[in-house]
Amino acid sequence: MAMEDEDNNAAGAATNTQTGIKKGGDVGDDGACIDRQPDTVVHQAGLNQTAGRGSRSGPGAPAATGIRVLKQRNMKRNGSRGCVTRKTRFGSRERDWLKGDTQRGCVCLYGETVDPQPPASGPQASSTPQTDLQLVLCSTSTTVEELCAQRDGRGLYVQLHGDLVRRLDPSERPLQILYDYLAAMGYADPVRVQHEAANSDLSCLIRFYSEHPVNADQQERTLLKGVFSVRKGKTQLHKWAERQVILCGTCLIVASVKDSLTGKMHILPLVGGKVEEVKRRQHCLMFSSAGSQAQTYFVNFDTLADFQRWHRQASKVVSQTVSMVDLSCYSLEAVPEYLFYSQDITHLNLRHNFMSLQGPGGLLNLPRFSQLKSLNLSHNRLGVFPECVCEILTLTELNLSCNNLHTVPVQIGNLQSLQTLSLDGNHLSSLPEELGGLSQLNCLGLSFNNFSHIPAVLERLSAVDKLAMAGNRVESLELCTLARMSHLKNIDLRLNGLRWVKSESLEAVSQVTQLDLRDNCLDSLDLSSICNLETLQCQRNQLGTLTLSGFTLRMLHASSNRLTTVNIYPVPNQLTHMELSQNLLEYLPDWVCDCRKIEMLDVTHNLLSELPSRLLNSLSLRKLLAGNNRLQRVPDLLDHVPLEALDLQHNKLTELPESLFYKALNLKYLNVSANTLESIPPSSQSEESLSTLQELYLTGNSLNENCGALLVGHQNLRVLHIAYNQLLSFPASKLSKLELLEELNLSGNKLKTIPSTVSSCKRLHTLIAHSNHINVFPEILSLPEIKLVDLSCNELTEIQLPDSLPATLQELDLTGNSSLMLEHKTLNLFSHITTLKLDQKSTTTAGDSLSASTPWNHGYSEMSGQRNKLCVSVLTVDRFGDGVEACYGIFDGDRNEEVPRLLQCTMGDVLCEELQHSSIDSVYMCNTFLTSHRKLGMAGQKLGASALLCYIHHEPSDPGGHLSLTVANVGTCQAVLCRDGRPVALSKVYSLENCTEEMERVKVSKAIITEDNKVSGVTCCSRLLGCSYLSPWVLPKPWVHTEPLCSQDEFLILGNRALFERVSYQEAVCTVQAVRDPRAAAKKLCSLAQSYGCKDNIGAVVVSLHIGEDSCTCEPPVSTAEPRGPPPAPVPVSVTPGPADPATLSSSSGGVSEFNSETSASEVGSEAGSTASDEHQSSGPTSRPERRCSLHPATTLCGIMVPGSGGAGTHPGLFQRQPSCATFSSNQSDNGLDSDDEAPLEGVISNGSKLEVEVDIHCCAFQLRSGAPESPKDLDLEKRGSDYPNGKMRRQNSVVVSATNGCLLAVCGREITDLKKSPSTSSLFGKKLSNGSVVAPEDSHNLIEVALEAPKKKSGYFTAPAQQDPEDQLIVPPSLEQEVREQLRGQSPLVSGPSAPSTAPILKDPVWDHPHPPAFASSLVPGPGPAPILQQEVYDTAL
Q: What UniProt keywords are attached to this protein's entry (predicted)?
């Protein structure tokens, strides 16, 4: 497979990923762009001669074999991508050598002064000289020692995920390390591994250094050193003198300049002391120690930078209350030697380093710290227990977690003062007997090791009260063993694969009070012998029975089991919290009603048919969760109860107790959604109400407008969800009484208006009223706190607006209002709204008719919930690729919005690219995910996202046959197919709680899984795109599944974790079946999830499928004399939100335009970022071709009609299109800047990485059609519609063409006037970007961002302009070359700009051989048939 990304990013782009090094060349034909050093070392195994240029041979050359070093010096960037390409990176012999064996490859070595983090601004960094990049060709058997001998180097270093840098051992093999890393990611093909290893983007994941990289910030925090003027004491008796001053650890060291280590040294302890600025001297600090005999030194610094650096670091030291030194995460191999002068250090943190035993600052010297009490050496890859640590007799705390330890030495018994010992995350299977002599040890961490039983030495550790052994291999637990360890009170045995808990004797286990048995394999559990048990956690087992002692039981957590009953004796009178959700309980045990202190009871997702009256009338119960059961009634309340929260959703209730609200006066939360309620009880028995209800969820019932009067008494109501009921209206006088209302959801009713009294709800910030019959815009834009208004899928025709809108309004959704017309004034008022969602007007063309014939259409919805930002993005492309295909995806970033947006804009193009290389579903889908993971660049180092991608296609073996659906996913996003009314799950949930094999894999790799079941406390997912710093625990390799589609398949649902946590597969299918319209169905799914209690981001995509028995939708041809022309092909453009003519907001049918002033990609049109969509059908001027079904379309590509395809065409489908590039990576790719004095392009996300978007606008060639000028009558007919079935056809009497830098842009001539009148698009005409690319406005839904006036907003993710890519072009087959040339020659006068002939590509090896592609033809390919010549209106936007 070819490595196309290197053509886009250039061979030396790896130097720019995090270092800013400029690009250099090697052996190649483009000599002008190559800067070679004369001493380049070249050695090739298996070749008799070395390279002719820049090589040396003979006795003086190193004699290593199989290694070739290509040194690339800094080179001036001149904006030409041709300067540094694969051909200049590798010569023909190098490529031949690489192809000879997949165990050969390329290792990129970065220089010593490379900073691990990238410069904040790429173009500036490129103007400063940096170190060389060396490309080393070697094999997987080449060792570090051999490489260093070849290069005369001292060592090699490896850095993973932009984090720590580790020195490689001489015997380690760099290329093998690289290949193993890629194989662990998920790459299976050795050839693909070889090519990925040479990809420049990979440096964000793994990179090699020839010297240890220097990090100035790290040096500052570990050691400050310099020669400055120093004066001792506060008096004038001492004179100023030049001294060497060192700040290391907790002390200030003043020494002689000449004899800094051997002469007299003054050591000033700073902890508890003072550091102050001396006002009367410039850049002077006073350092004072603590205590009555404090010493003082004055230090005069040379520069302000030195002064600030020393002041900042010293202030941290003096502010400490204990003598602690934190050197964690510094990639240290040894501590600074000066640190040993800080003899007052009591706490030393060396976590996440690579500490060695030997050396002046190695572990062997740590006993020199005479007062050290706490030592943290976790995550240091020690391999063996450092026995020297056992000589530090003052230690009270020692942490050696995650060090690959297999044994503990007997010398551990020397640490008699030790109180805490952490050995988690190692490979220990036994402990020495000497450990039992540590009488003061009270905390011992043994989690995630290999123990198969509880170590017997614990019987002697009488001070240890907690057994922390989670994640081991203890399959059976003898309670008598615990009885012998009478000091253990807290037992943690989760994640052990525990199968039996045995109690062979009648001996009571009296000391254990807390027991954690979560995530094991228990099918029954009898703990009645543990008589003092207070807390039991046994979730996610397979328990059918549970027997406990109730004497002291306070908390019971037993959800996600198979319990049919719970036996507790005696009655647990101390029980306060009990969780029994997701079990098989048909009734509640009698003892539950007798619990006197029960406060919280969760019995959701069971089989309960009734609730005991005594339970509901309990005088202690405050929270009752009984949703998703089979309850038909709720018992009456007999007296006042303290109930505060009641959840009864998803039951079969027809009514609620009459006395509910005036007997439960403390009730603040009530959820009775998804029942069959026809009314709600009154709030009080009199006119005066004492209700304190704040949240009321009534969604999915049968309530009518009469319930409005009953809501008036709840005057403290803040949240009201009454969606999907039978409301015809909402009483105006009643709504005005709800003055404290903040969130109102009235969706899915039959409302025609929202009462004007909604303006009385001054605190209202969210109004959701989609899927009604509202025809009058409500008076809500005068509310001072309004943030979100959703009036989609209604019948609005116009909007009456106030003179100004509240500054708080962030989102307005008006989609699905087909008759809504917006004026310029209205759009002007909407200009400040962060997210404005509008329908595209029906100014559609022939291409839309073709799109409408696809056997699918989609709708989607995204809701932020109670979160401040939306971290869910969707990808929807109804027409994907060359044939009739579709691509849909959903991406959930959990807490980050960056990664979902990047995936939304790149993943479709990555899939298109991978489809060129493989037709095997598991291969191209897997590689799509892995490549997208790599393309995240620095954003993907610390951030990640769940991702799901669906690809509808024909099987490669049968292109004209039935359709198939290939689904791939990582994380918790899910896909469900409705087949014959039943849900078919297509995805796999990769969370630790849901996937036992993934849990085992993570455990084997020695990850620490915290008590909330998260890997290192970060994520519950074991597979994600991004979060590469959690590798190898969290991987990007997806689950891939292909499902053949048939006529019984009705629709497809894509959703994130939050959606399917609240809405089951079956309910989701029934919901969509009842709605049918995909957009309204997606809206309903999200609204239901919110009403069921979801507070998180929710995303849903619904794809309606219309697949016949033979997967064909052909129609008989229809003849007409009316000429039709193609619309302009989609061109992603950037525009700022603002007033816009409605005509400029058009897109394909069903598309939605979203305007986001913050350039939020997840809120741009549903096909944002995809440049491989919307091929439009063309026709001749006098006839319309036979209308084809979407499965057998006319042969069109990018708006080009293949000659002969209109009739008995020959060579059908021979036009090919290279995949577009929408490349996001952290490398500073070539922006095309011609000189350093041009303004750099900004695009920096929150973590500082440079992201550039290369939008495919130069691969759009359009058929030029001519016809007689249309009469006004014809224009009127066009406005009213056409004879096409969808009524959305449009004339195109002329095409405006721009040809600039090989970019062809076209706009319908009829729309030019309207476009130029619109403030939001008028500036596009004649506007030239800094790199020479020109973007014209398009009536396309394929927008990468809504506004090109975006120099005003110089931030965000998509500010980089479109950049021409030399390989993104049309390829003309040799058999059609002559015919195409003749047609181009006939149309050439109509095009402004140069024209270059298209030549047939040379077919070579697609992997390492990539000749320069033929020049892109700047001419238009005409359609078939005669074309009368007309005057064309041509705009050269480059001028």
A: Cytoplasm, Hydrolase, Leucine-rich repeat, Manganese, Membrane, Metal-binding, Nucleus, Phosphoprotein, Protein phosphatase, Repeat
